Amino acid sequence: MKIVVIGLGYIGLPTAIMFANKGHRVIGVDVNESVIKKLNNADSGVEEPFLQKELEKAVKQGNFIATTEIEPADAFIITVPTPSKGDLWKSCDLTYVIQAVTSILPYLRVNNTVVIESTVAPKTTESEILPLIESVGLQVGENVHLLHCPERVLPGRIIHELVHNDRIIGGVTPSCTEAGIKLYQTFAKGRLIPTDAATAELTKLMENTFRDVNIALANELVKVGETLAIDALKVIELANHHPRVNIHQPGPGVGGHCLAIDPNFIVATAPFVTQLIKEARSINESMPMYILSKVEQIMTQIGGRKITIFGLAYKGNSDDTRESPAMTIYQALQKQVKYEVVAFDPHVSLDFVEKDIKTALTNSDLLLVLTDHSAFQKIASKHTANMRNKLIFDTKGIVKHFDTEVSKIHLGNMHTLKEVSIMRR
Ligand code: SAJ
């Protein structure tokens, strides 16, 4: 089969490679010339386990070619980004999807399959994409197949999860679903679950919304714990011993390109019946401000000046800073002239990030942990020795540092904040 994959990002590229390594001829299309060049030289350019090896295999066997030009194929898979629009409800911006679908129209032939993998608002495939496909004289469900087939993979495990996760295959008609199952079963080992396009779209959005709402519950619990002087982290730990309870972890907010964006796509399509989703979003969005107010309180109490931020990525062991609450907090503190703010993140290589952990912490008054990178578990006395005030504010519950000289504030003991005093070295 010949397959064109449009958008060679963190989903499109591994998907294209998986098809190629199952013997399909895959044409990967992207607008970014430098990405194309790298890929044709078998350089994936991203840190993702097994991807580089799989790409090398696909390029060597001649089954994968990257280009900026579309060409005729049996199947077209759209994996372009769908950011949030700047409107009232932060609805789904379909610009790239529409551009991608429009670009394949001249090449569409009878019996082709068109897959929208990009995350989209409910009913988009049927109401926005179907009319485009049919504008060239084809009939969806009759002589061309159209479906929504969302991805569910976790960065860091993309290759494994692409193959092994169950997948929702949502055709606009049952024959479209069948065509989708035929296509994906060439590499997927998980169950391919048939449904319709709109159900698939809402399912994908609800998966991420479930996590967003659950995290909001944990974040609200932190505020309750502070008010009642009860350790919220302990409450979560104990509650999760119940066999049917799984409260997520609180933190400085929710980042990334999925949880912070997808719930709004549901709200935007049904704004008057989505109070809980909206409230969860606003609780999670309030967290950077909440953390900032606590930092302010601490710094005032100790008369501190230098703040060292550990972690800018939106989640642990990732270099991704998209929608990162840590970035929001860093930027807000950075604007305040009364503070000297230094950021340290072993995964993020932005210009302003301090690379030397010792320099980052020397004369610091507060070590503010905003990301749960595994490396931060190993923060030890040798790192904190040169701090001016030995104080750690760990918003992710990751630091295991044991040293009676060091005070530790976390989201379970916020009620003790007023007792924080100067711990000069
Ligand atoms: N977070 C918390 N507390 C938690 C879990 C996460 O505050 O208990 C925060 C993280 O720190 C981060 C944000 O939430 O800022 C999102 O992290 P995540 O690991 O929950 O999710 P993503 O956005 O990296 O990936 C999600 C995944 N969805 C689920 O696990 C249901 C992934 O499987 C999806 O493929 C991906 O969204 C996507 O593309 O939709």
UniProtKB/TrEMBL annotation:
Q: Would the keyword Metal-binding turn up in this protein's UniProt record?
A: no
For molecular function, the Gene Ontology terms on record are: NAD binding; oxidoreductase activity, acting on the CH-CH group of donors, NAD or NADP as acceptor; oxidoreductase activity, acting on the CH-OH group of donors, NAD or NADP as acceptor
Kindly state which keywords UniProt assigns to this record, in alphabetical order. NAD, Oxidoreductase
What superkingdom does the record give? Answer: Bacteria
Its GO biological process annotations read: polysaccharide biosynthetic process
Against InterPro entries, the record matches this protein to: 6-PGluconate_DH-like_C_sf (IPR008927), NAD(P)-bd_dom_sf (IPR036291), UDP-Glc/GDP-Man (IPR017476), UDP-Glc/GDP-Man_DH_C (IPR014027), UDP-Glc/GDP-Man_DH_C_sf (IPR036220), UDP-Glc/GDP-Man_DH_dimer (IPR014026), UDP-Glc/GDP-Man_DH_N (IPR001732), UDP_ManNAc/GlcNAc_DH (IPR028359)
Which residue ranges does the record assign to the UDP-glucose/GDP-mannose dehydrogenase C-terminal domain?
308-401
- UniProt keyword Thylakoid, yes or no: no
Q: Which Pfam families match?
A: UDPG_MGDP_dh (PF00984), UDPG_MGDP_dh_C (PF03720), UDPG_MGDP_dh_N (PF03721)
Q: Which PANTHER family match?
A: UDP-N-ACETYL-D-MANNOSAMINE DEHYDROGENASE
Family statement: Belongs to the UDP-glucose/GDP-mannose dehydrogenase family.
Q: Could you identify this protein by its name? A: Nucleotide sugar dehydrogenase
Organism of provenance: Listeria booriae
